[in-house]
Design a protein that fits this description.
single chain; about 190 residues; mainly alpha; 6 helices; about 80% helix; elongated
C-alpha cells in the first residue's frame, strides 16, 4: 500500500473522524465499565459504612479490596463481549489514563491500609475524578468531563464530613462521577443504534 502525506485539512478530518469513532465506541462500550465501577464502589462503600457503624471493627475496611477483585474481571468480561473494533490512538490513551489512575488509587489504598495514614477517601476520589475528567476531555464528552470534575471537586468535602460519614459522601460522589455518566453513555449508545 502506498503511503502519501496528508495535507492540513485531511489531517484535521482524520483526527476528527478518530475522535468521533472513539466517542461512538466510548458511548457503546464505556458506559458499562463506568456503571460497574460506579455501582460496585457505591455498594461496597455502603457495606463498609454499615458494618463499621454496627460493629466498630475496623477490619471491615479490608472489604475495599473487593472492588478491584469484582469490578476488574467484570470489566474485562464486558469488554470481551463488546463488538470487536480497531483500537485507535485515542482508545489507547484512554486505556493508559485508567491504568495510571487505577494503579495510583490501588497503591494509595494499600499504603493507607498497611503502612501509613493518608486521607484515602479524599485521595482516591481526587484521582478517580481526575481520570474521569481527563477521559471526558480526551473524547470530548462534556457529561463525562463534568462528572469527573465534580468528583474531583467533591473530594475536598471529605475534609469537612466527619468520621465514618465520609464513606457515605464518597459513595454519593461516585454516583455523580461514574454512575450518571455511565447511564448517559449507555443511553447515547441506544439512541445511535
Amino acid at each position: 500500500m502506498e503511503e502519501r502525506k496528508l495535507n492540513e485539512k485531511e489531517s484535521l478530518e482524520l483526527i476528527a473522524r478518530m475522535i468521533q469513532n472513539t466517542k461512538n465506541r466510548m458511548a457503546e462500550n464505556s458506559g458499562t465499565p463506568f456503571l460497574l465501577w460506579g455501582y460496585m464502589t457505591v455498594i461496597i462503600s455502603l457495606l463498609v459504612w454499615f458494618l463499621l457503624k454496627e460493629t466498630g471493627n475496623s477490619d471491615w475496611q479490608f472489604l475495599w479490596f473487593l472492588l478491584p477483585v469484582i469490578a476488574f474481571p467484570a470489566t474485562l468480561w464486558s469488554q470481551r463481549k463488546a463488538r470487536k473494533t480497531v483500537k485507535t490512538y485515542i482508545d489507547r490513551v484512554v486505556g493508559y489514563v485508567w491504568t495510571v489512575f487505577g494503579l495510583g488509587g490501588f497503591l494509595v489504598t494499600c499504603i493507607t491500609m498497611f503502612v501509613g495514614n493518608i486521607p484515602v477517601l479524599f485521595t482516591v476520589l481526587l484521582l478517580m475524578g481526575m481520570g474521569t475528567a481527563l477521559t471526558g476531555l480526551i473524547i470530548r464528552m462534556k457529561v463525562v468531563a463534568v462528572g469527573g470534575a465534580l468528583g474531583a471537586l467533591l473530594s475536598i468535602g471529605c475534609f469537612y464530613v466527619p468520621g465514618m460519614n465520609q464513606i457515605l459522601f464518597f459513595a454519593l460522589a461516585f454516583v455523580f462521577m461514574m454512575v450518571i455518566p455511565g447511564h448517559y453513555l449507555n443511553r447515547m449508545a441506544k439512541q445511535d443504534k
